[in-house]
Design a protein that fits this description.
CATH class: Alpha Beta
CATH topology: Rossmann fold
Order of helices and strands: EHEHHHEHHEHEHHHEH
Helix content: 40-55%
Number of domains: 1
Largest sheet: 6 strands, parallel
Distance between the termini: 38 Å
Shape: globular
Radius of gyration: 18 Å
Number of helices: 11
Bound molecules: nicotinamide-adenine-dinucleotide
Strand order of the largest sheet: 2-1-3-4-5-6
Number of strands: 6
Strand content: 5-15%
Length: 266
């Protein structure tokens, strides 16, 4: 049931590919809560995905942008402010991709061109986005920028491969930029570390089916769904979390604090 939690807020949502995407759920719920936002994704994903359906349901404009290209991000931010009628209050960076994972390269035989791509798409794009936003003074005071991450940044999950390095960097960028954006404009920058979730990016990781059920058994609350994650994102965009910044926030049903659970023994 809507509470107009984001009434009057303007934002940009990256990364809605299809109805399984975490960003898709965030967009649906942000719309229900009264936010106005533009949707963006890489041009290729716009051709393959179903984002048009989401845009019409959310009364949103789609602005293509490759998150690795600063010139695309500049156009995206300018056009978003123009379309929405002013500076932004929230941005969701829900972007990740590793060619090494996609092509199932073993971690001990990575392709370094692919590795560069993984870092650029999944981590450096977050810095590019923040730097473009701060240069354009595109965020209102107390605005909130979120990236999505995974616990492989802290612990070893062998098949997560070079995405682990990308997520560690993404989380570090949130801390580093969070300082500067906080000082400059009281803008919050955080990452949410989400449970494994059955999306296009998630299921690309080898052994995902077994792994998602292991995480579910390990977590006292079970795995957090994409809908749960969207609710958490909304709370982080709202005024109820104004003093939270530079954090990596675990949203994982308790997984990150567990050693072993009885259901794993069974
Ligand atoms: N699914 C999981 O298990 C899980 C768990 C923790 C964190 N995450 C993170 O959540 C985020 C969203 O992923 P998802 O699970 O919803 O999967 P998804 O595949 O639906 O979303 C990933 C998005 O990244 C976009 N993207 C890829 N390259 C891009 C580029 N160059 N420019 C712009 N966009 C680009 C894709 O088009 C896609 O929309 C990612 O950062 C992912 O790593 C996912």
């Amino acid at each position: 049931m809507s509470k107009n939690l984001l009434e009057g807020k303007r934002g940009i949502i990256f990364g809605a590919l299809d109805e399984n995407s975490i960003a898709w759920k965030v967009a649906e719920k942000a719309h229900e809560e009264g936010a106005k936002f533009t949707l963006t994704n890489a041009p290729i994903a716009l051709r393959l995905g179903k984002i048009n359906e989401l845009a019409s349901a959310c009364d949103s404009v789609i602005i293509p942008a490759d998150a690795t290209l600063v010139e695309d991000l500049e156009v995206l931010i300018d056009q978003s402010m123009e379309t929405l009628g002013g500076p932004l209050d929230f941005i969701l960076h829900s972007v990740g991709m590793s060619p090494n994972v996609r092509k199932q390269r073993p971690y001990t035989d990575l392709n370094y061109e692919f590795f560069h791509k993984t870092i650029d798409v999944s981590a450096m794009s977050f810095h590019k986005l923040l730097q473009t936003a701060i240069k354009k003074d595109a965020m209102n005071e107390w605005g909130s920028v979120l990236g999505l991450t995974y616990i492989a940044a802290q612990r070893n999950f062998p098949d997560y491969s070079d995405m682990a390095e990308a997520k560690a960097m993404l989380e570090s960028i949130a801390r580093s930029f969070g300082y500067h954006y906080g000082i400059a404009k009281k803008v919050r920058v955080n990452t949410i570390s989400q449970s494994p979730t059955a999306t296009t990016a998630g299921t690309g990781v080898k052994g995902f089916g077994d792994f998602i059920s292991f995480a579910d058994k390990m977590s006292p609350l079970g795995n957090a769904s994409a809908e749960d994650c969207a609710n958490y994102c909304l709370s982080m965009f709202s005024d109820y979390t104004r003093m939270v910044t530079m954090q990596n926030l675990f949203h994982d049903g308790g997984f990150s604090s567990m050693g072993v659970s009885y259901s794993i023994f069974e």
